[in-house]
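Assess this today:

___
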Amino acid sequence: MTKPKKIALLVVLGLFLYLSLYTWNLRTGYLDDLSSRTGLDIAGWVVRPGQWVTSQAVETWERYVYLVGLREENDLLKERVRQLRLEKLKLRERARTASRLETMLGFVAPPDWKASGARVVMHRLGPTAALDTVAIDKGTLNQVFDGQPVACLDGVVGRVLKAGFSNAQVLLLTDPNSRIAVQGDLHRSQGVLVGRGENEPLEVRYMNLNSEIEAGEMLVTSGMAGIFPKGLPVARVTDVRRSDISLFLTIIAKPLVDPAGLEEVLLLTREAAAEEDHAEGE
């Protein structure tokens, strides 16, 4: 059989098969139902990946939005915690300050003297910080004057070196320019306590070689110079040495006050009646 005949035969067979299926489908409707179901499956296969991608995109976006909100909330909580910690530190410092001030209120001034509190606002004043000093928040407007004795609960701090209108400079007992008349609280031997600089021990000068004094004895103000009231604690003797070439003892003492830790001080003022009696006595 030639090739054209084969082709013609195939076309006739195909046409016959098509007409047969068409006629059969008209009677049964099976092919229409099959095509509709197959089309739905194909459409489902096409749509299903799109739905998955959409679902993942929406879920990712919702998660991102949630994380952004969570991060913002976390930042707000961190800021709140920081503020609470700062407030806690402030309250703790206020409590400590209140405790110190309450304790200072229990300070009993020597007879004929009165005390008023002041806050230390600065350490080490003067050109190149040459002087061992502190600054306080009171001045002449608060009746502070040059030479006024300054103390705290532990003992003598020093004296006012220079008073401004609202602040004053206090020369500490550790400064080499400081001179305080003292005596031992046990043997009552007298001398002059001299500073030797920051972080250095104090020295007692002009105490006679035969004076009685011993290590561990407390040194208190003698009141001889008329600046400090008598009996205020100042330092404790740590070493006593005698020399064959000097008429005076070599005495080393440790201050009772730590200048670096000063936050509040007490300004001592002689009361008016006592001031008049003191002036008459001079």
Remarks:
- The chain has a mean pLDDT of 78.
- Residues 30-105 form the longest helix (76 residues).
- DSSP finds three helices and twelve strands in the chain.
- Helices lie at 3-28, 30-105, 272-281.
